[in-house]
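hey m, so remember when u said the tokens were messed up on ur end? i reran from scratch. heres the input so u can diff it against urs
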Amino acid sequence: MARADDNLGGGLEPSLTAASRITLHELVIRPEAEDWIVGRVELEEFVAIPQLGVRAIRLLSDGHTVNETRQRLESEDDDAIEVLSFVEQLRELGFLKAIDGIVVDGARDEIASSLPWIRPRFVGWLFSGSLRAVYAGLCAVALVTMGLRPSLLPRYGDLFISRSTTTVVVADTAISLALMGLHELAHLVAARSLGVPARISWGTRLFDLVAQTSMPGVWAVSRRERMRCYLAGLAFEAVLASVVIIVLAAANLHGAAGRTGSAIVALILLGFLMQLLVFKRTDVYFVVADLIGARNLHDDACRYLLTRLRVLVSRARRRAPPASPAQLGLMDRREYRLVRGYAWFMVAGSAASAAGLAAYIVPAIATLFARSRVELMTGISHQDYVAAADAATSMAILCGSWILFLIVFIRSRGAWWRRLHRTG
């Protein structure tokens, strides 16, 4: 997150002492399992703290000084926290509004949301109980329809809607991009129906270029409501595929319309299968991580693996092993086992994906690119400009997608690497 160049206190940086009285921004404070979630929605910054930390926040909010808060906590609990250090952490998170009347707001910039005009009152009705019943009914009808007409079951061949390679590449790419955009829009609408800010951007998942919806503010709502946000994309695609299947069966569509409809269903099914690869940060990953109570499973697993690698390097150089990140040290045994298990599962899954990429995807793309290049040169030499344009289009899509992947990968990894190395 960006930090402002100055604050609103006329350039005066307020100092924090034991005698200070602080003013906090409006914070979300709610119980979550054995901890409490505390956060500021507009910054999308949330932390899990124990009950004692919540008690300290409430005492500070009531006007007690840092020292008075410490004394009250010590009289109430033998395991009192170090309040001054705790308040410093709140300041770093952007939760403090003022210290001794001097405004400190401006240390963190608010996060811009995509399509901010979408309000809960505009989209909340889409998640009503009656409409959820309609969605479930459509899915049930589609399943029955496919059972009665097995020819409607999605197949790999449905992706090839034409004999022209370029037509297949262009059509499948266009359909995939449209589905990707609608999928992420469904996440954003689900988040916005709960008043949670969200933004859509490009990102990468291992070797894949993806659109992604960032919505850390979901920690301001209950687990059931978070599931709505996590699963909205998959739910939308399930309903869309069901509608397409029903239309294909009812209208008995053939030709280009029928092939396009079948390709849509096949690509949606392929997307469902990709979501099951939970060693990436897929929608299903977020559901699983939330259900097992590992709030930052992927990054913690990366920290664990990075620590293990540093230990191996230190042993090879006969140096003292490095200290584990603070996040790992603060975990209980259960969460640490989950993180460690997921870390090695992530290594295995990533290795398998890399092998599949090297063995199948890269050769297939290279072959397709080589054929398109030959067709381009042949078309130019024979003055068949239609064929040349056809080949050039395929090459442009293939090159463009990988160039875009590399750009997004490089840009996104800087912020991820800095977040991974946080020790607070």
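this time it looks ok to me. The two ends are 15 Å apart (CA to CA). if urs says something different then somethings off w ur setup not the seq
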